[in-house]
Design a protein that fits this description.
Number of domains: 1
Shape: elongated
Largest sheet: 2 strands, antiparallel
Length: 65
Amino acid sequence: MKTFHLSAAVTVSAYTTVRAETLEEAIELSQDREVFLHFNGSGTDPREDWCIEDVDGDLMEIKEA
């Protein structure tokens, strides 16, 4: 039997908190933030980072690595 090493993209939900005058400004300000796993003791801050808490997404684009 063969062994295959696969990779895939996974969609997950992330959140951040932005102070801005408009939604458009908030979106613009959020685009430069990095994405991190957020858990107790992780040191992440939703006011500065995009935070992921749960793996709630679906696999897509599965291919051989």
